[in-house]
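User: what does the whole thing look like in 3D?
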Amino acid sequence: MKGLAAVVVLVVLMQVSAIAGGVGLFAGAGPGGAALGEINQAITLYNRLLDNFNHTPTITGNVPPIPKMGSGITYQAGEQFWITDDLALGGKIEYFRTSVATAGEYQSGGKKTPISIALDCSTIGFVLTSGFNFLHYGFTLGVHGGVGYYYSGFTSNITFSVPSGYNKTISVHPHTGKGHYNNRSLGLEVGLSMVYPVTTWLALGVDASYRALTAPRLVDAHGIGLDLDGDGTAEHINLSGISLQVNVSIKLDLFR
Amino acid sequence: MIYMKRVRLFLVLGLIGLIPIMISGCLGSKTSIQALFTVSPDKQVIPFTANFDGTLSYDEAGRIVSYTWNFGDGTTGQGPVVAHMYKRNGAYKVKLTVIDSRGRTSVSSITVQALNPPPTAQFSYSPKSKLNDKYVVGASEWITFDASKSTDDGTIVSYNWNFGDDTVGTGKIVKHRYIWPGTYNVVLTVTDNNGGKTSYTQQVNILGGPPCNSDISGGDTTINGSQK
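Assistant: Here's the predicted 3D structure for the full assembly of 484 residues, as C-alpha cells:
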C-alpha cells in the first residue's frame, strides 16, 4: 500500500516536472472546527452531573461546566506544482488541535472532592491536494480538494467522582483517569480558495475548507478504547469540520 | 480546451460526490438522548423502599415524553420519579427507559441490593454463680451453652462455637468444661438459610484449679451438636 502510494506520487511529480508551469509554497493558519459529536455528548453528561452537584443543598462548592469541544486552530504548510496556469497538484501537512478543561472542588462534612477534567484532541494529516482556479478578476478564485492520511490523538486527564454528601447512587459512571488514545485514518478535504497576488511571486489568500475525517475508535497503548461516558462502548472521534485559513504563498517559476 | 472542460467536469463530479461524506461527517452516530437516574438507597436490608429519580435524564434535541421503569423483580413503573418496595432479598437490575418526542430511546440501569436480614445471635450458659458482681464458673465444671434465643426471619441452619481455649463446637445447645482458670471469650456464630451470619461474644470467668482426679485432656459432651 505504502509502495503503491510512493509510486503514484513519484509518477505525478515526474509528469509535473515535465510540464509544470511553476512551483508554489504556502503556509497558513486560522480558526477551525471539528464535530466531535460523541465527545461532546460525553461532555454534556459530565455537565449534567456537575450541574446536579452544584445544586445539591448538602454539598458546597461549584465546578463550572466544560465548554463544548471542537473549536481550535488549524495550521497548514505545503507546496503545489502548477501543471497549467489553473491546475495544480501538490501536498501539504495539516495540523488541528482543540482542547477544553474545567476544575473545581466540592465540600461536604469536612470532606473535599476535587474535580478536574481536561480533554485535548489533535490530528495531523499528510494530504495529497489538487487545485483548480476558475475565476481571475484581480484576485483568483479556485476550488481545491485532497485525500490524506491523518494521525489523530486524544488525551484525557479526568478526576471525577461523586462528591461526599451526595447521598444517592447514579446510574452512569463517566470515565475518570488519565489516558492517551490514538489511531490513523484516511480523510478527505474540499474547499474554496481566494488568492490575491501581491507581486508576481507573492500572494495572500483565504481558504475555506471542509475536512471529512472520522477516526476509527481511538485506543490506548493497551488497545483499550476511550469510553468517556461509561456506556461500555468506545467513542468515535469525528474530526470532520470547517476551517478558515489565511495563507501566504510564494510562486516560483522554475521551468519558464 | 476539451482538456480543460474535462477537468472542470471531474472537479464538479468530485465535489458532488463529497457532499454525502460531508453530511455524514456532520452527523453524530450516537443519539443525544440520555437516560440517567439516581436511587436512594441502593443497598438495604429488606423490606425497604428505594426512591428512583429519573429527572437527570436529558435530551438535547427533543423532549422526553416517557419514563418506564423495570424494577428487576417482575414489576414496572411509569413517571420521572417513582418509589418501589423490595420485600425479598436479592440483586435487582433496575432499568430506566426514556423515550423522546422523536421516538428515540435510551436505557440506563443500576443494581439494587436487597439484603437478607441477618440472624440475631444470643446464648446463655449455666451453671454460674455471682461473685463480686461477676458471674463465675468453677474449673472442670460442665457448662451448658444454650443458643436457643438466637432468632432469624427464616431458619438458622448452623450454630458454631469457639470456646476461646482452642476448642470449637457446633450445635444449638452444647456442653463444655474448662480445665484451667481464666477469662475465656466464647464466640457463637449463627448462619441462616440465606447465608447471613451473625456472631455474639460473651466472656466466661473460670475460677479455681483442676481437681486432682480430672481428665485434663477434655472430653466434652454435646447436646444436639458436636465438638472438636
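In plain terms: The first helix of chain A runs from residue 2 to 19. Residues 60 and 107 of chain A are 5 Å apart (CA to CA).
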